[in-house]
Every structure is written in C-alpha cells, then in structure tokens.
C-alpha cells in the first residue's frame, strides 16, 4: 500500500467509509448519509484509490470488507468518535447540578466574599469556590487556566492569553477611629498632622493615593503597612492613623470597628479595576456563568457600599 498523505484526506470520505462498514451496502450508506447511491459509489472509488485496496467486495450478493477495511474500521472508529466529541457544541452548564471547582484570585474582601457566597449557594448548591491570594505568578496561573477569574486593580499589564472586562473605577474614602480628633475639623491641614496606614499590595508599585497627594502638594507621612485589608480596621481602631482605601475593601472594617468615614484629602478618581480570565476558557459555559455571576455581584456590591459611604462621609473642609 502506498504511503498515505494525511493532509490530502477528505474527512467526508472517512464518514462515508464508516457508513459503508456499518450499513453493509452502498444503498444503506447513502440512506444513512442522506446522499445518492451514485455519490456514495463515487466516494468508495476514491477511497479504494487512496488506500490502494478494494475495501468492500461483492460476495454472494453482499458487500464484504477486506482485511484492510476491517483494520481501518478498528483504527478509525475511535478517532472519528473523538473528533465528533471535539467538534460538538459544549454541553450547557447547569449550576443547579454542577459540582465543579472554580478558583478566584482576589484581595481579601470578607463582606463581598460573604455576599457572593450566598448568591452562589442559592444558584449552585454543589459548586465549590476556592479563593486564592494574588501573587507574582497569578497571571501565569490565570493564562494557564489554573485560576478561573482574577480581580486586577490599577494599570497592571495583562499578559497575552488573558481577556478582561473593565469595571467602574474604585471610589476611595478615608477612615479613622470613632472620635478621632481630626474628624472634628476635617481638612487638608488637619490631616497633615497625622500619619497614614496603607496595605502592601502585591506588585502594586507606587501607591495611587501617594501620587495624588504629591500632585496636590499635600504630602502624607506613613505610619506603617499591613499585608491585607481586614487588618486595617483593628489597627485604625487602636491608633490615630488615617487610611485611604477603596470602598469595596472596607465595608466590614467600617462597620465592625465603627470607623468614621471621611472625604479623602487626596485620592485617584480614575483608578481602574478589571476582572480577567484565560482567553482559552472564554467560551466555556461554566466559566461564562462564573464570570457573569461574580461580575454582576461585584458591580451591585460596589455601587451599594459606595453609596452608603458617600452618605456617611464627613466632607473635607477648607
């Protein structure tokens, strides 16, 4: 048999061969494929030429496969079934019955995570969400599909193979302990007498709040850094420090530690945020459901808590 040139094989011929082997005749194969018998006969002729073998021969009034045809049928059957599975439209994702595990990378936001958990449990009781820390390698894990969704703050570059959806920019507020002396006469001059607390965010570079303070020529003195947002509340409650943070990171701190909300002396108005995911999983039904669910919940949460803080904030004086 001559060497097969795979790139010249017509996949329709392989489907015709499969139908001939299953049907046992040209007429049966034509009926199975919705073709005319002459079209199937023509395809059989091309197959015989391609494989240099008669493949099916008439014996006693019936078409019988040659040894080569039997070998081809054994080898091609699993291949064609696998190809059909690969080309089929993905099964719809049913959150009500799915037990998939999804991984979301986001800085700690207990109030939002609690809100989202309730939403997901109601729609997908068997689903598991694994919250993971954002690290220096998170984008690699995201592109590889090891992380399903990641919250990205700032102008951080997104590597190839990652898609993202732009969200409304962060809204920043300043926070102090209840009864803080600065809150009685809140102004840029008053704020300059106190030191600030911040969060050490992975790969964040220069703080956007620091940039705004410099632009407005309102320098701030740092008191220290904590490694995660939930630590801001207890530190503020026990000190005279000031912290300027995004609204979405501070609901639990604000309410649990009875902090006072202030209009910030300086804060970015256009500090961007995005949700990002692997382009490889862009059309996966489960990942699509996850993105839509998380992003809607996040938008609703952000708008709600920002509105509450606007209503509670002490305005900046002269």
Automatic annotation (TrEMBL):
Superkingdom as given in the UniProt entry: Bacteria
A Pfam family hit: HTH_1
Signal peptide: none
Keyword DNA-binding among record annotations: yes
Keywords assigned by UniProt, alphabetized: DNA-binding, Transcription, Transcription regulation
Start and end residues of each HTH lysR-type domain: 9-66
Stated family: Belongs to the LysR transcriptional regulatory family.
UniProt-listed PANTHER family: HTH-TYPE TRANSCRIPTIONAL REGULATOR LEUO-RELATED (PTHR30118), TRANSCRIPTIONAL REGULATORY PROTEIN (PTHR30118:SF15)
Name of the molecule in the record: LysR family transcriptional regulator
Organism encoding this protein: Pseudotabrizicola sediminis
Taxon lineage: Bacteria, Pseudomonadati, Pseudomonadota, Alphaproteobacteria, Rhodobacterales
């Amino acid at each position: 048999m001559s060497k097969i040139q795979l790139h010249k094989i017509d996949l329709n011929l392989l489907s015709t061969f499969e139908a001939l082997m299953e049907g046992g005749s040209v007429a049966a194969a034509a009926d199975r494929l919705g073709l005319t018998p002459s079209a199937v006969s023509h395809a059989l002729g091309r197959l015989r030429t391609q494989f240099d073998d008669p493949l099916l021969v008439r014996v006693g009034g019936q078409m019988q496969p040659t040894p080569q045809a039997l070998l081809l049928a054994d080898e091609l059957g699993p291949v064609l079934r696998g190809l059909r599975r690969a080309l089929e439209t993905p099964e719809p994702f049913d959150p009500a019955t799915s037990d998939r595990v999804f991984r979301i990378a986001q800085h700690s936001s207990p109030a939002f995570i609690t809100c989202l958990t309730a939403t997901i449990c109601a729609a997908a009781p068997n689903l598991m969400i694994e919250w993971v820390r954002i690290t220096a390698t998170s984008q690699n894990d995201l592109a590889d599909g090891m992380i399903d969704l990641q919250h990205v703050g700032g102008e951080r570059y997104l590597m190839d193979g990652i898609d993202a959806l732009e969200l409304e920019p962060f809204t920043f507020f300043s926070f102090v302990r209840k009864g803080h002396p600065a809150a009685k006469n809140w102004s840029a001059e008053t704020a300059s007498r106190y030191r600030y607390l911040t969060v050490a965010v992975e790969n964040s570079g220069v703080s956007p709040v620091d940039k705004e303070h410099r632009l407005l020529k309102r320098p701030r003195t740092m008191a220290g850094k904590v490694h995660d947002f939930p630590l801001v509340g207890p530190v503020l409650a026990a000190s005279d420090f000031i912290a300027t943070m995004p609204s979405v990171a501070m609901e639990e701190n604000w309410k649990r530690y009875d902090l006072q909300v202030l209009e910030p002396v300086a804060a970015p108005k256009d500090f961007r945020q995005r949700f990002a995911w692997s382009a490889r999983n862009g059309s996966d039904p489960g990942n699509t459901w996850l993105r839509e669910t998380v992003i809607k919940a996040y938008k609703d949460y952000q708008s709600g808590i920002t509105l509450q803080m606007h209503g509670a904030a002490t305005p900046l004086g002269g």
